[in-house]
Amino acid sequence: MVQPSDPVVDLVVAVHSTARPVERAVASVLAHTRTPLRVTVVCHDVDPGLITEKLGASADDPRVRLIEHRDGVRSPSGPFNRGMDEATAPFVSIMGSDDLLEPGTVDSWVERQRAGDADVVVTHLRHAAGAYVPTPPVRPWRTRRLDGSRDRLAYRSAPLGLVRRSAFPGLRLTEGAPVGGDIAFVLALWFSGRRISYDRTGPAYVIGADAADRVTFRPKPVAEEFTYLSSLLSDESFLGLGPREKASYAVKFLRVQVFGAVHNRPDPDFWTVDERAALRAVTLRVLALAPGAERVLSIADRRVLDAVLDPGTPVEVLFERSVARRRFRSPAALVTRDLTRLLAREAPLRFMVASVLSRR
């Protein structure tokens, strides 16, 4: 058995409830990994003794250690940062306690890292139900030397895979953020200019479906959901990005965060005057970040954007447009309102092709 004093990978699992299947997460790593590694289970505001019982035989594995972290903050950033602070291996990885890895995932990451001398290895994802997650929609067949903008890496909003610690000293998740605490972290990775590889066809990181208390899945007031935005937009490294990089993130934010905020809150009663105003304010901040970025959006997307920016639009119309934008084969979802941007990298046609080919 490889001792934990010389791991190649420090894998951090944060757990804040005994209801989480953390034993499954840890076992999925230990049982099928040849690479020397250490699994650090950070017990976030929960008794480590209870987590030890949950882990069963895995708790006795010399590759496993438990760390107690108490901060009273309902955010995953704190325990993940604590685990990364305790890491000593060349590479670090983070993992949700209700997720799991397919057999050989860590070994595949390491092989991909060595093949390209990568500073970051991006894993591919699938849902527990079996569906493959087609993000990021990188250039077809690309596996190494990825570019943050050209490979649309902003669509991967979690740092899942490997990160070389020496390449990113002091990099941390945003403390206290209930959601989005990893956004600044991943953007610092994607737009760093460092060597980034994509483990396109290896075993998958599997997103668990059985955590009813997952913090980031609870509908929140718009202002609370986007608390991380202010710190991101004032971050020196983010402000130092070029126009192309900022536009890449802005388009992703509109498609995923803004339109997702509408899609994930289908209750008309939620959308009070204050909530509509909050979403408008957030959207305007991002549009100001990259003027004109919205020109690559489809006709259907622009109709939703129009409704978001005009809180006087009836909420029923907002919902109708939100549903319509998800008819991805419709002409309105494929064609840009601004026809000069029809074949732009972030426009629907090229974006969808890259998504379809993202595993090849």
From TrEMBL:
InterPro entries: Glyco_trans_2-like (IPR001173), Nucleotide-diphossugar_trans (IPR029044). Residues 12-168 form the Glycosyltransferase 2-like domain. Signal peptide: none annotated. It comes from Cellulosimicrobium protaetiae. Pfam families: Glycos_transf_2 (PF00535). SUPFAM superfamilies: Nucleotide-diphospho-sugar transferases. Keywords: Transferase. It comes from the Bacteria. GO terms for molecular function: transferase activity. This is Glycosyltransferase family 2 protein.
